Structures are given as structure tokens and as C-alpha cells.
Amino acid sequence: MGIMGATIQDEIWVPPQRAEEMASPRPRWGDLLLFVSIMVLTVVVISLMFYALLWKAGNLTDLPNLRIGFYNFCLWNEDTGALQCHQFPELEALGVPRVGLALARLGVYGALVLTLFVPLPLLLAQCNSDEGEWRLAVGFLGASSMLLAGGLGLFLSFVWKWVRLSLLGPGFLALGSAQGLLILLLMATVVFPLRAERAKSELESC
Questions:
Q1: Does the bond joining 89 to the residue before it have cis omega, within 30 degrees of 0?
Q2: Cα gap 159→1, rounded to integer Å
Q3: Taking a C-beta distance cutoff of 8 angstroms, is the pair 181, 48 a contact?
Q4: Residue 88 phi, psi dihedral angles, 5° rounding
Q5: Of 195, 41, 165, nearest to 115 (Cα)?
Q6: In this predicted structure, which of 5-19, 31-45, 96-110 has the lowest mean pLDDT?
Q7: How do beta strands 59-63 and 73-77 pair?
Q8: What's the pTM?
Q9: Inter-axis angle of helices 98-116 and 170-205, to 10 degrees?
Q10: Which residues, in sequence order, are CB contacts of 59 under 8 Å at separation 6+?
């Protein structure tokens, strides 16, 4: 009887190393899906901003009788029956300040540049479990969101006397969508490490 009991104990005995492996957390598909969604949304934001600022040349309104954007300011001329594009100092006479327009351009195009730096730290943070890299990506997203909102709002405040909501074209829709997705990404990237930290603390408490 004693021999059989010892045999059973030997069979159910688990080496310490194996026990640690069994206790280690398995990859959570929910977190992986959230990370993939964050990366996909980041690519979508970059694509929208490329479309609006480069493909559409920054034009928020592009109509046969009106073309207004960050680098184009063309109004309809009744005398010539054609679009007349204005440059500085004519724009200053129309109420568009040179410094204000420069800041608006810096905001929207700076947001594009900063957003381009987001995917790499996200990937490095996920692969290396580096919280510092993840915080860097969150910082880029926050700065991009503020720059885009500030630059777009500042520009619209200068040109609203000529532009109405119904006249805004695909460029504006793309930038508006990018702004909304940037806010969503910022919220997701803030919540994601909190979930991982909470899961880790629960595992350590068990």
C-alpha cells in the first residue's frame, strides 16, 4: 500500500519549471484583436490624410466656381467669368493673415508627419512588451490629434465667409474622418495597456 501511494505521488508530481509554464498567462485573443484593430485604424488615418493633403492638394472645396484649400485660394470673378486665384498680399487684404495660414498649414501637415511615426513604436511595444514605446505612440497620437484639430479649425475660421458646410468636399470629409479616428485611436491606446496591466495584477494575486 505504501509503495502504491508513493507511485501515485510520483505520477502526479509536477516539476517546478513545468508548473511555472502552466501558470504563465496564455496569449489573449481579445488583446491581439484589439492591437490589430489599432494598427488597421492607424493605416486608415494615414491614408485619409494622404488623400486630403497630398492627393487633393489640401483643397477643402474644389468646385468649378470656388477652390479653397491650404495652398489654393481661388474665387469666382464675375468680370472675367473665371476663377481668380489670390496670393499674398491679396489674401491679407481679404482677411486671411499670413501667420495664421502658416500655422494652419503647420498644424495639418505636422499631424500627418507625426502620424507616420505611430506604427513603428506600436509594433516594437507589442513585440518587446515595452511600455515606454507604447507611451511614445500615445504621445504621437495625442499631438497629431491636437495639431490636426487646431490647424483645421484655424483655417476654417479664416475662410468661413466664403465656405459653407454644404460646399465642403471630399478633402474636408477625409480630414474630419481622420480627426475622429485619431480620437478613437487615442482612447484605444490608453485603454489597451490598462487592460494588460489589470490582467497581470490579477494573475499575480492568484
A1: yes
A2: 94
A3: yes
A4: -70, 140
A5: 41
A6: 5-19
A7: unpaired
A8: 0.79
A9: 40
A10: 67, 68, 69, 70, 72, 169, 171
